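Side project, low priority. Logging it here so it doesn't get lost.
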Amino acid sequence: MSKDIKLSVEEMEKVGVQFGHKVSKLHPKMKQYISGVKNSVNVFDLEKTQKELEKALTVISKIVAEGKTIVFVGTKIQLKAIVKAGAEECGVAYVTERWLGGTFTNFETIQKRVNYFKDLERKRESGELEKYTKKERLDFDREIAKLKVKFEGVRNMSKLPDAVFIFGIDRDITAAREAKKKGIKIFAIVDSNINPDLVDYPIPANDDAISAVSYIIDRVVGTINNSKQAK
């Protein structure tokens, strides 16, 4: 992990990283990361969170330094904007709309759709669509807008990534399963209701609060940018 990236238990506490779900929702394999209960909610041991996040950042730094690629996934409504902003800040691919089944396991088919989208955009920009009627051009505009929502974040992902960071794995479990099948390293925020065995580098933390997820995204983005600069 870069020396510039500081992790502080006090800061984590301020932004609510420590709050899990209600006690009744606890996944048995998450017990090891829980230090107590507050108002019927599981509370994470932030020293363990700090340790796991440090471990994840160290590996991410190495991945980037080796010229390998990582993609961010976060389709929870409250997290979309910050996941997209973080991905754009460090220049990585991202999925913040609905996960399209087969994005990893049927990559070639998805790539064809991405290429079709990029080709349509190119044709519109170069004026090649001007020969069509006004109605047909309007149809193309609508199609491009729909494809943009689906594929904008992965438009430059020309091959399968080496790693994926999932922010909110309960919603994006399919992404994790596909990554597992393809041997893609999985980093994820793992809340108290999730089986951590699904993930190679689980970070026990609150995956619902924007402030908590922002804290983690900022450190992941900082690590990626530092590692790129050091290359």
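Brief comment: The chain is about 45% helix and 15% strand.
Revisit when time allows.
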